[in-house]
Design a protein that fits this description.
2 domains; 30% helix; Glutaredoxin; alpha/beta; Thioredoxin-like_sf; ribosomal protein; Ribosomal_mL43
C-alpha cells in the first residue's frame, strides 16, 4: 500500500456553498496573468490581453484580473479560488484561441481537485466486485452500433398520452366548439 496520500489534503466532493441550488456563484476569485512584453512565447497571451481581456472582465465582474508584466519570463496564469486553492498554469507558446479556452476552464472549475485525496461518506470492508453503477449499465448493447435517430429505440408513440397533452387537446377542442357556437349565432 502506498503512503503518497499522506501528503495530500483530504476532502469530500461536494458543491461548494451548495453552488447552483439557489444561484450560481463563480468560484474564481482572482486571476493573475504574468507575461513579458517582448518574449516570443508570450505572443498568444499578449493577443488575448489586447483583444479579449476587456470583454472577459465585463462578462465576469466578480473576478479580479491582474496583469503583471515581467522581463524575460514565460507567460503564466495563476487562478485563486474562493476555497483557497491556487492553480498555476504555464501558457508558453499557446495560441490566442488556446489561451481563451484555458482561461474559460480556469473560470468554470472550483479549484485544484487533483491535489485532494477524495474521501467517501460510506465505508465497507467488502467492496463490490461488480464495479460502480453507470447510466449505461443496463442499456441494450444494440445501441452501440445503431445509427440514430432510430425508430426502434426512440419510438415514443407506444407511451400513453401524458396528462398535459390530454389537457392541451381538451382545451383546443373546447376553443373550437366555442368558435362554432359564436359563428352559428
Amino acid at each position: 500500500m502506498s503512503n503518497k496520500h499522506l501528503f495530500l489534503n483530504s476532502g469530500f466532493v461536494r458543491a461548494p456553498l451548495q453552488n447552483g441550488v439557489g444561484r450560481y456563484v463563480c468560484q474564481l476569485q482572482r486571476i493573475v496573468l504574468k507575461f513579458c512584453k517582448t518574449h516570443g512565447s508570450c505572443r498568444g497571451l499578449r493577443d488575448f490581453i489586447e483583444q479579449d481581456l476587456v470583454d472577459f472582465a465585463k462578462q465576469n465582474p466578480g473576478v479580479v484580473v491582474y496583469l503583471k508584466p515581467r522581463r524575460h519570463r514565460g507567460p503564466v496564469a495563476v487562478a485563486e479560488y474562493l476555497n483557497g486553492d491556487r492553480v498555476w498554469m504555464n501558457l508558453a507558446n499557446k495560441t490566442h484561441s488556446e489561451i481563451t479556452k484555458w482561461i474559460e476552464v480556469l473560470r468554470t472549475q472550483q479549484g485544484d481537485i487533483a491535489s485532494t485525496r477524495l474521501r467517501k461518506y460510506q465505508y465497507t470492508d467488502h467492496p463490490s466486485i461488480q464495479g460502480p453503477w453507470t447510466p449505461f449499465t443496463f442499456k441494450n448493447p444494440e445501441l452501440n452500433t445503431a445509427v440514430l435517430p432510430d425508430q426502434k429505440f426512440g419510438a415514443n408513440d407506444r407511451l400513453p398520452m401524458s396528462a398535459t397533452e390530454q389537457l392541451r387537446l381538451m382545451f383546443e377542442k373546447q376553443k373550437l366548439e366555442e368558435g362554432d357556437v359564436k359563428t352559428a349565432e
